Amino acid sequence: MVCVKLGKDIMSYNTYYRRINRIWMTGILIFGTIFFVIQVKFNTSGRHWWNNKSITIILNNLNIPISNKHGTRYTSGFYSHLKKNINHSCAFPPDNLNGFEPLNRSVLSMASLINNFPFMKNGHYRPPKCTPVQKVAIIVPYRDRKDQLKVFLNNVIPKIHRQQLEFGIYLVQQVSGAAFNRGMLSNIGFVEAMSDMNYDCVVIHDVDILPEDDRNLYICTDNPIHMAVKVQQFDYQLPYEGFIGGVTTFSKAQYQEINGFSNLFFGWGGEDDDLYRRILYHDYKLIRPFEDFGICGSVLHKEALKSSDRRKYLSFSAETRRMDGLNNLTYNSLKKGKKPLFNYILVDIGQDND
Ligand SMILES: *[C@@H]1O[C@H](CO)[C@@H](O)[C@H](O)[C@H]1NC(C)=O
Ligand SMILES: *[C@@H]1O[C@H](CO)[C@@H](O)[C@H](O)[C@H]1NC(C)=O
Ligand SMILES: *[C@@H]1O[C@H](CO)[C@@H](O)[C@H](O)[C@H]1NC(C)=O
Ligand SMILES: *[C@@H]1O[C@H](CO)[C@@H](O)[C@H](O)[C@H]1NC(C)=O
């Protein structure tokens, strides 16, 4: 027998190779584990798409069919959150969705819209025969775009109706004068909607960016959801990774926790980038639907005045976000009312002082 000397041990070649093998195997195991951990971390710290892989794993574990006949799929967040709230109850996933449908761009009269949606009462709908999984407030910051509003109502109402949610629409209109302040109008919409009803979820919805696929659900989960992923006016792609404009959903608690939007952004743009920082600052991750579910049409308009001050506000948003938002909101509401298809709040939010 041939022997080798390894330190103090005398051993056979067989033992020697076995030991070397063991060292290799251990090494491979350790590096494999590290690699795996990095992969998992990388995947989960990236985008939270509703992807096939995560959905398959989760739905298998929950023993829920992976898709209904329209192929609707959801993330873990979705299900763990919704399961708590389901009390048999409206079908969930909703079972009469149409999938993708191009925007209907006809501008109908308000009278025919009201006529087409007789199930809406006082800007509100509740499924009559089942308990909806969530109560959702649709908040629309608005000014002087009557035709867009009509297109909005004609496209959005039937989609949420098919999703079997309880919902109310809140149009928050700013009187002319000061530059448009989308953030502050959204905060006002939140306060007004919550004082009207105890909603679970708010959707901040531009009047001119409209989902074209009803599998993109107007609903809230354990993280905010950005619904407007592929928007026509941005060539159907995300303009940048942190873009959260268009249509975004928050649970009541999430919106309160991040202190809503900043009130400081008068003029077009900036407030949504600041909002994204608030979301990250509170350790939330943005959830986005499958890209194809997130397709939205744009109802074109002349571009509003860009805010000249948006960089300035963004640069000190870290210090101000604790004091500036929902918790120091003051406004003067001039008029409030309930129309058949929406709640209406006219506000004077003063002038940008700079
Ligand atoms: C998900 O799976 C379906 C069919 O199983 C496939 O058609 C689709 O491309 C997949 N989507 C992604 C994002 O992988
Ligand atoms: C579910 O519905 C029943 C009957 O309407 C009601 O008594 C019960 O409180 C509900 N449960 C939950 C968790 O909402
Ligand atoms: C748009 O909607 C109206 C009202 O529902 C309908 O009468 C019209 O046919 C639709 N147009 C298209 C192109 O689908
Ligand atoms: C809210 O607080 C910010 C930061 O202190 C301030 O600039 C802003 O004017 C306040 N807004 C209102 C409506 O009081």
UniProtKB/TrEMBL annotation:
The keyword RNA-binding does not apply. SUPFAM superfamilies: Nucleotide-diphospho-sugar transferases. GO terms for biological process: carbohydrate metabolic process. Keywords: Glycoprotein, Glycosyltransferase, Membrane, Signal-anchor, Transferase, Transmembrane, Transmembrane helix. Belongs to the glycosyltransferase 7 family. Its EC number is 2.4.1.-. Catalyses the transfer of galactose onto proteins or lipids. InterPro entries: Galactosyl_T, Galactosyl_T_C, Galactosyl_T_N, Nucleotide-diphossugar_trans. Pathway: Protein modification; protein glycosylation. The keyword NAD does not apply. Residues 226-301 form the Galactosyltransferase C-terminal domain. The chain crosses the membrane at residues 20-38. It is found in: Membrane. This is Beta-1,4-galactosyltransferase. It comes from Mytilus galloprovincialis. GO terms for cellular component: Golgi apparatus; membrane. One of its GO terms (molecular function) is galactosyltransferase activity. Residues 94-221 form the Galactosyltransferase N-terminal domain. It is a single-pass type II membrane protein.
